[in-house]
């Protein structure tokens, strides 16, 4: 088989676009940092307020022909960009475009070998293969062949070339600059194959091919033979959750979390994340991604938005316009009587115009010391309820929105604003947490929601003069 085309770095043209865009982003962030560094190294919140304007230049690949977009993978917990800036294949979201040259693969033959290390398929770095180790001296090799109907995209922690989208562990809220000592995300976590023609269906599979185009499943990994085909699970697994109902529109409900196998079959969850025993096969469900499907890689959760679903969604510009509209209404602090401004860029220190929300009642006010007791709790001057307060800040990543409209709600406790339906949707979605638990989080910063219902309706006082 001639794989010379296969190995070509066909992504370069695509990456160049991405890199160009991100250079601009990095530059503005660096400038920002230079100004800040000398003043203080105080940890600053990394949210949409410092968002550099994204230049949406990636709709064309140098020619006038628009590129076919399959969809987007968006990491939960980032509000439009990584805190250190989007760079190359490390970014907060990855757009899947139709490749100029197909690079998908499909299963072909399989056979048993005594020593996989010396098997031709493993040694041949042009040959995609999966090696299932059965015992010290027995392995099943499954060879994969070129599939001219699909494009393949790989996701994982590795920065090696076969990984298109490099994903690191996501820490909630403002802990994002802390170091993760031990990552639970696999270096070659998963692969997604998208049909190049027709409906562009995207299927997800556990594990990705490494630089030698191999996947090794060790002796201890969970594996089995299903009639004639070998299949298996990766250590921490790849979990998927298809929402029940249409994601866009705001009427979908959280579905059940499942696990997908190396072959793309769907199973119920294991007892615990990396248990040896696989779950039950769920024949009636598939690994085809639908708009709003969540993919959990144990340490980071990705949201799949189909190109079709995104067509109805607000754009970043739409969301920025909404912020402008609220500011144009000149909301007022009922205590300081000053006009509040929802910022789009980071501001140093406490600004009188920075709006705060009282998380128990939703009253929006400026910075003041009224009603603050020794413990730091504050009594809201409007309703006299004791409540924690937090900066109000726009959720600016459009992919997380389930509808369009005014951002009249905010998540508790982080203060990210979004539409009512968006906030209510995410407050009811369970995200895998650690090895055995689930929790609802703010999609813009990954902070676990607190209290019930985990959000608050905002009450602005309009400027009366
Ligand atoms: Zn109040
Ligand atoms: Zn948040």
TrEMBL record:
Residues 64-321 form the Pellino FHA domain. Keywords: Phosphoprotein. Residues 326-465 form the Pellino RING domain. Residues 30-64 are annotated as: Disordered. It comes from the Eukaryota. One of its GO terms (molecular function) is ubiquitin protein ligase activity. This is Protein pellino. It comes from Polypedilum vanderplanki.
């Amino acid at each position: 088989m001639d794989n010379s085309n296969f190995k070509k770095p066909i992504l370069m043209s695509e990456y160049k676009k991405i890199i160009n865009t991100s250079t601009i982003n990095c530059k503005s962030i660096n400038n920002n940092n230079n100004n800040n560094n000398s003043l203080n190294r105080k940890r600053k919140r990394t949210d949409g307020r410092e968002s550099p304007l994204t230049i949406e230049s990636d709709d064309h690949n140098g020619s006038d022909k628009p590129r076919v977009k399959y969809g987007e993978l968006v990491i939960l917990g980032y509000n439009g960009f990584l805190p250190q800036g989007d760079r190359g294949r490390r970014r907060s979201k990855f757009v899947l475009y139709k490749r100029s040259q197909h690079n998908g693969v499909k299963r072909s033959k399989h056979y048993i070998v005594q020593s996989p290390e010396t098997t031709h398929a493993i040694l041949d770095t042009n040959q995609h293969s999966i090696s299932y180790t059965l015992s010290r001296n027995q392995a099943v090799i499954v060879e994969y062949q070129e599939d001219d109907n699909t494009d393949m995209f790989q996701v994982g922690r590795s920065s090696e070339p076969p990984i298109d989208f490099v994903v690191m562990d996501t820490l909630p809220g403002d802990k994002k600059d802390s170091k993760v000592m031990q990552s639970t995300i696999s270096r070659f976590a998963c692969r997604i194959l998208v049909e190049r023609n027709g409906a562009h269906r995207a299927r997800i599979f556990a594990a990705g091919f490494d630089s030698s185009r191999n996947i090794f499943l060790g002796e201890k990994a969970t594996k089995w033979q299903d009639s004639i085909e070998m299949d298996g699970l990766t250590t921490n697994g790849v979990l998927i959750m298809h929402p029940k109902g249409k994601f866009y529109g705001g009427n979908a409900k959280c579905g059940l979390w499942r696990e997908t196998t190396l072959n793309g079959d769907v199973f119920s969850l294991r007892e615990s994340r990396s248990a040896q025993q696989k779950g039950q096969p769920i024949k009636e469900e598939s690994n085809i991604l639908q708009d709003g499907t969540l993919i959990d890689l144990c340490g980071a959760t990705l949201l799949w938005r189909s190109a079709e679903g995104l067509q109805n969604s607000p754009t970043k510009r739409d969301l920025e316009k909404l912020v402008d509209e609220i500011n144009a209404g000149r909301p007022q602090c009922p205590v300081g009587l000053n006009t509040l401004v929802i910022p789009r860029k980071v501001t140093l220190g406490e600004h009188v115009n920075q709006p705060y929300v009282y998380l128990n009642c939703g009253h929006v006010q400026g910075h003041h010391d009224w009603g603050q007791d020794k413990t730091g709790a504050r009594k809201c001057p409007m309703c006299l309820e004791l409540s924690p307060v937090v900066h109000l800040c726009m959720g600016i990543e459009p992919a997380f929105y389930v509808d369009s409209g005014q951002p009249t709600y905010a998540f508790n406790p982080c203060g990210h604003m979004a539409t009512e339906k968006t906030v209510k949707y995410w407050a009811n979605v369970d995200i895998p947490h650690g090895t055995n638990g689930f929790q609802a989080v703010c999609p813009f910063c990954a902070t676990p929601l607190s209290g019930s219902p985990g959000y608050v309706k905002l009450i602005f006082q309009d400027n009366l003069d």
